[in-house]
Amino acid sequence: MNDMGATAGQGRRSQAERDAITVEIGYALASATASAVLVFMALAGGPILVFGLSGGLAATLTGAGLTLAAVVFLVRLVTVLWRFADRLRARRTAAAGVPPQPSQPGRTNPDS
To answer: Would you give the end-to-end CA distance of the chain in angstroms?
Structure first.
């Protein structure tokens, strides 16, 4: 049976890696929340408060703001975690002594 924190063939994660993952998840959640709040306030909250909107227009702006804020939240969360996973994978590969992939697709040698 595999270790919960490891994938097949990679071994156990160190305490430093687990801590880095925890911090990165917290950062991803905080930055995604901040981005979503800013988008909502720019699209709906600000105009409603500044112009004193009410009724149907306020409801429409609120719905659009919430929808766009949810999309921004998810996109930000996924991109932050995806980039971290790529960096972590590259660090683990470098530590294992595996040479990095060529910088240009289709080339097998940096001199070619």
So the answer is: 44
Angstrom distance (rounded) from CA 41 to CA 19 = 33
Please give, one letter per residue, the 3-state secondary structure of 35-67: HHHHHHHHHHHHHHHHHCCCCHHHHHHHHHHHH
Q: Measure the CA angle with vertex 10, ends 7 and 15; round to 5°.
A: 90
CA 1 from chain center: how many Å?
A: 30
> Distance between CA atoms of 14 and 17, rounded to whole angstroms?
5
* Averaged pLDDT in 10-residue chunks for the chain of 112 residues: 46 86 96 98 94 93 97 98 92 75 62 56
